[in-house]
Amino acid sequence: MSNPASTPALSLRGSLGNYLGLVVALVLMIALFGSLSEYFFSVSTFITIANDIPAIAVTAVGMTFVLIIAGIDLSVGSVMALASATAGLVMLQWHWGLFPAVLVAMLTGLVAGMANGLISVGWRLPSFIVTLGMLEVARGSAYIATNSRTQYIGSAIDWLSAPLFGGVSPAFIIAVLIVIAAQIVLTRTVFGRYMIGIGTNEEAMRLAGVDPRPVKIAVFAIVGTLAGLAGMFQASRLEAADPNAGIGAELVVIASVVIGGTSLMGGRGSVIATFFGVLIISVLEAGLAQVGASEPTKRIITGCVIIAAVVLDMVRERRNRRSA
Fold first, then answer.
1. Model's pTM, two decimal places?
2. In angstroms, how far is the first alpha carbon of the chain from the final one?
């Protein structure tokens, strides 16, 4: 018989190995682009990357939770646009300040996420289909709210992306704090254990007396709320509410989470590892831009990286099953 104490030890070794692999991949990528471009290995490049990632980072936190419970949310990019549109509306027409507008954006995301959760859980529909529908609903609503035009807000919203000490923005600091808080929730709370349990074996959780439905709805509400905050981060950088913002963001977010090692099958994931995945994608995009790669080439390379991450996840999942 196997020693039960060996399971946590193996899990810890696997987590440390995943972190080490991500760090090595990130360092090698930085070294590669540093050798290919004389301008890449500079403070300004790293500050630019840091200030570019908050929207993707906070949304990836929520997506990590969703994938851990074996769900998916394809609507986050459109929810970003809708949240920034509603925030722009209250700032431009009702003359509300930045912080009330942030609350409105997050509330907008919360409503969209709750709708996704209630429909997919209440009717037992695949979250893929439900959130695909919300992708269109939220995008269309963003066009209606902005009259299909970019709404320029100006300096009233730029505080979130304005450089502070060290050149990093408040949005980056907020994103890092959210990553840390989410990792604590995942690893140190009952809610986090419930998420992992639901993703691993939902029926076993029911038999253990835990109703998975409130947990799953809460997870979709969290990712929607964080997408709403991400919409404000995007609007702050643009100083405008753009109804086309966030197009394709869901693919970047999911790619970052999968690169970070979160299982597409549910039951396994780490928010810290997801943050490393965000950094890897961001460094890849910045490096390809600096070496002069064309847009089609960048998309091909990024797509290959995503496919490699998915293949690696499948190999890891099969190895874990054989070990079990």
1. 0.93
2. 12
